[in-house]
Amino acid sequence: MRIAVAPQKSLRIGLQLSRVKGFLADWRGWWFCVLSDCEVRAVSMFRGSPGEALSAAEEKAGSEADAVLRDGGVVDELRAYLESREPLSTAAEPRGTGFQGRVWGAVSRISLGETRTYGEVASEIDGPGAARAVGNALGVNPAPLFVPCHRVVSRSGLGGFSGGTDLKRFLLKLEGVRL
Predict the structure, then answer these.
(1) Taking burial as the number of CB atoms within 10 A of a residue's CB, which of 57, 112, 113, 122 is the most buried?
(2) CATH assignment of 98-174?
(3) pLDDT tens digits for 134-179?
(4) How far are the Cα atoms of 80, 92, 134, 161, 173 from residue 179, in angstroms, in the given order?
């Protein structure tokens, strides 16, 4: 069942752990869709339509959203981060392989305003020499921003980002990182 709602106040919809709730927010022309069932499971970022953002997040999460809310806790937290650098505190619980989970866990510990290289993340998870594999794991991170893969950079430059390098550069500057 899919419910699309666009009121100013959030709606309270009963949440079962097996169901996924979607939060949709627009910010400066970007659509952010966050799918959550207690922890964040998927985030998508698009400059296109809100429908594209929702579809991409559903594909990442492997399930369909039961509700799309324009306001609510996760959306408010996301807006506060984007507008005033408030750290995101909602737990992320992306699903992936064991290696991906270790990478995402290490990246989740990088504080706002700090960066690590792909190689440093690889060394932290006891995978020296696995910088490329770390990059691949970050490339399929289903919950960017909440698992802040934009904070991982190349040894010789910016590196990639699922939202594009312009958004990565913007997020790092927003967090006070000098590029």
Answers:
(1) 57
(2) 1.10.10.10
(3) 999 999 888 888 899 999 999 999 999 988 898 899 899 989 999 8
(4) 23, 27, 21, 15, 8
